[in-house]
Write a structure and sequence with these properties.
Blueprint lengths: L1 E12 L2 E13 L4 E5 L6 H9 L6 E6 L2 E2 L5 H6 L2 E3 L12 H8 L6 H10 L4 H4 L10 H15 L3 E5 L7 H12 L4 E5 L3 H5 L3 E6 L2 E6 L1 H17 L1
Parallel strand pairs: 3-8, 3-9, 6-7, 7-8
Antiparallel strand pairs: 1-2, 1-4, 4-5, 9-10
Helix pairs in contact: 3-6, 4-6, 6-7
The structure holds adenosine-5'-diphosphate and magnesium ion (MG).
The site of magnesium ion has 3 residues, from helix 1.
Length: 233
C-alpha cells in the first residue's frame, strides 16, 4: 500500500515562494489502479516525481507498506518494487529486445518469460526477440517494447505519467489490456477516458490542491464542471 500524507512542494521562483503542491494526501491499495487527473500545471507530474524519489517533498510523507520512504533514493525505492514505467529506455548500440527485457527484469528473465512479455503486448516473440533495438523499429513497435518491459519488470507499484502520449491506437488498446490484466498496483496520470473507465479510484488535482479522491462516478462530474467553467471565461 502506498500512502501520501500531507505532501507539499514549494520552490523558490525568482525570489518568491511558489506552492506547487499543497497538502495532498491519498492512498493506493495493493492491486488498485489509481488515476490522477487535473488540468495542465495542476501538479500531477510533480507528485509522480515525489513518489519515485526524483524530488523530495518540502513537507509530508511517502509511506510504502508501512515504511517511511520519504528520504529513500530512487534505487532504494526500485528495490522495494516501485517503478517509473515510462522512462524511455536508454538504447545501447547492438542491444537486442531480449537483452533489454532481461535488464528490465533485473536479470531474472528466461526465454519463455521474454516471449510471454512480448506476446502480451501483441508482438510475435519469434519476430522480435533477436531484433536489435534501433531506429529501424517504428515508434509503435518501440512503444510496445516499452510495454513489454513493464511486464518483464513485474514491479509491485508502477507509476505512469501520461502513458498515452505518442501512442498509436493499436498500442493504446494493448496498454489498456495490460492495465486490466494487472497483478500489481498502478498510479497513472491520464486524461484518457478508456483508462479512467478502468480506474478503481480517481484523484483530482486543482492548482496543486487535492480537489477530490473518489470513484470515477464521484469525480467525473467535477471534471465536467471544471471544463464548463473554463468555457465560460
Ligand atoms: N522546479 C520548479 N520551479 C518552478 N516551477 C515549477 C517547478 N516544477 C514545476 N513547476 C510548475 O509547477 C506547476 C505544476 O507542474 P507539473 O507537476 O509538471 O504539472 P502537471 O503535470 O499537472 O501538468 C507548473 O506550473 C510548473 O510550471
Ligand atoms: Mg505532467
Amino acid at each position: 500500500m502506498l500512502e501520501l500524507k500531507n505532501i507539499s512542494y514549494v520552490v523558490d521562483d525568482n525570489g518568491t515562494q511558489k506552492v506547487i503542491l499543497d497538502d495532498v494526501s491519498f492512498v493506493a491499495q495493493d492491486n488498485e489502479l489509481v488515476v490522477i487527473t487535473g488540468q495542465n500545471g495542476s501538479g500531477k507530474s510533480t507528485l509522480a516525481k515525489i513518489v519515485m524519489g526524483i524530488i523530495k517533498p518540502t513537507s509530508g510523507k511517502v509511506i510504502y507498506n508501512g515504511k517511511d520512504i520519504t528520504n529513500y533514493s530512487i534505487d532504494k525505492r526500485a528495490k522495494l518494487g516501485i517503478a517509473y514505467a515510462f522512462q524511455s529506455p536508454v538504447i545501447f548500440k547492438g542491444i537486442t529486445v531480449k537483452k533489454m527485457l532481461e535488464i528490465a527484469s533485473g536479470g531474472k528473465l528466461n526465454i519463455n518469460d521474454a516471449c510471454t512479455a512480448l506476446s502480451q503486448v501483441g508482438l510475435c516473440a519469434r519476430d522480435y526477440i533477436d531484433r536489435e533495438l534501433n531506429s529501424k523499429l517504428s515508434g509503435g513497435e518501440l512503444k510496445r517494447i516499452e510495454l513489454a518491459m513493464i511486464v518483464a519488470r513485474n514491479a509491485k507499484l508502477n507509476i505512469c505519467d501520461e502513458p498515452e502520449a505518442g501512442i498509436d491506437l493499436w498500442s493504446f488498446d494493448a496498454l489498456v489490456n495490460l492495465f486490466k490484466a494487472r497483478k500489481s498496483s498502478y498510479v497513472i496520470i491520464s486524461h484518457q477516458s478508456k483508462i479512467i473507465e478502468i480506474a478503481d479510484k480517481m484523484v483530482l488535482l486543482k492548482a496543486g490542491k487535492l480537489e477530490k479522491v473518489g470513484t470515477k462516478e464521484e469525480v467525473m462530474p467535477l471534471i465536467a464542471e471544471e471544463k464548463c467553467a473554463r468555457l465560460k471565461v
